[in-house]
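Sorry to interrupt, but I need a hand with the structure work. Could you write out one complete protein record for me, on any chain you like? Just paste the record in under my message, thanks.

. . .
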Amino acid sequence: MHDSHAPASWRVALPHAASAVPVARALVRTALAEVEHGADCDTAELLTAELVANAVEHTTGDTPIELVVEVRPTGCRVEVHDPDPAPPGDLTRPVPEAPDPWQEHGRGLLLIRALSSSCGHRPTESGKAVWFRLPVVPAQRRRSP
C-alpha cells in the first residue's frame, strides 16, 4: 500500500501540434488510474484536451507545450504551459453574452470554467501556464469501470 497523501506529479513536454491532445488525455487518464485517484477521469481528460488544444491553436512557433499533472488526496490539478504570455481570453473574464452551444470554437474555456472547481492562469518565465483543479468525487458517485 503506497502513501496516498504524498502528491504525485507528472511533467511532460508535448509537441506543438494537434497530436499533443490525445497524448495529454492518455497521460491524465494514466496518472489518475495509477494512483487509484478519485477525481472524475472523464472530466479531467476533457478539460486537459481543451487546454492543450487551446495552447496549440492560439500560440505560434514550435516550442513544445508542457503538461503538468499533480494528484493530491483532495483532487487533481492540471497545468498546461505554453510560450505565449498573453492570458487566455475567456478563462477568467465574465461572459458578456451566452455563446452559441453549437459553435465548436471558443467553447473550451467556458467548459473549463463550468466543470472545474477552480481555474486560472499565471505568467511563467517562458510564457504562461493555464490550470484547473478537480475535486475528488465521493466513491458512491463514481461509476464502476
Q: What stands out?
A: Residues 37 and 136 are 8 Å apart (CA to CA).
